[in-house]
Design goal:
Number of strands: 8
Distance between the termini: 29 Å
CATH architecture: Alpha-Beta Barrel
Helix content: 25-40%
Oligomer: single chain
Low-confidence stretches: none
CATH class: Alpha Beta
Number of helices: 9
Strand order of the largest sheet: 1-2-3-4-5-6-7-8
CATH topology: TIM Barrel
Structural class: alpha/beta
């Protein structure tokens, strides 16, 4: 499994429990369209399904040399052989996650719109820092707003920056120019009629 951070389109899987076949097929389409990283994000609470689904996704990501990141669950990341884990504010420390997922694990931390959180996460050894919601998001309509100036300020921490929240091909270029290495997307890819084409359109932003 590739454990290097890969800039570009960073897709977060939609909630499709218990349809593993759909999860894998849609993720494969996003990868074929150029998605650089995948995050498995599932709130079903079904531990057996989560492990089976994450393991299936890991195999799919390996075929495209794309790191698989597990949302919120370092133990699951270790169990399925994922590249790493993404931590929110309630998901424990970077140190605890690394102890579970391994020294080589990619660990990302949600910093929302808070530079102090980013500073602490970088000091704790996070491999990348995530900010959002950059724009209004249908997935998390109540999420805090993160202005692009916060992303610009976070470039000082010498970590790849991931931006999330309401990002589209039309507004994504401005986010990259503000300093984001990756754009994290759910609905604008997985909600599209043609997932592969949507991913390819996003991926083209880095070629402009």
């Amino acid at each position: 499994m590739n454990r290097r951070f890969k800039p570009g389109l960073y897709v977060l899987t939609p909630q499709v429990y218990p349809d593993t076949q759909r999860l894998v097929a849609e993720t494969r389409a996003a990868l074929a369209g150029g998605a650089a990283m995948v995050q498995f994000r599932d709130k079903s609470g079904d531990a057996d399904w989560r492990l089976a689904a994450a393991t299936a996704l890991r195999a799919e990501c390996e075929a495209y040399d794309a790191p698989l990141i597990i949302n919120d669950d370092a133990r699951l990341a270790a169990s399925c052989g994922a590249a790493g884990v993404h931590l929110g504010k309630e998901d424990g420390s970077v140190g605890s996650a690394r102890a579970l997922a391994g020294d080589a694990a990619l660990i990302g931390v949600s910093c929302y719109n808070n530079i102090d959180l980013a500073r602490q996460a970088a000091a704790d050894g996070a491999d990348y820092l995530a900010f959002g919601s950059v724009f209004s998001s249908a997935t998390k309509p109540a999420a805090v707003h993160c202005p692009l100036d916060v992303i610009r300020a976070a470039t000082r921490f010498d970590r790849p920056l991931v931006a999330i929240g309401g990002i589209t091909p039309d507004n994504g270029r401005a986010v990259i120019e503000a300093g984001a290495a990756s754009l994290a997307v759910i609905g604008a890819v997985f909600g599209a009629a043609d997932i592969q084409l949507a991913a390819r359109t996003f991926s083209g932003l880095w070629a402009e």
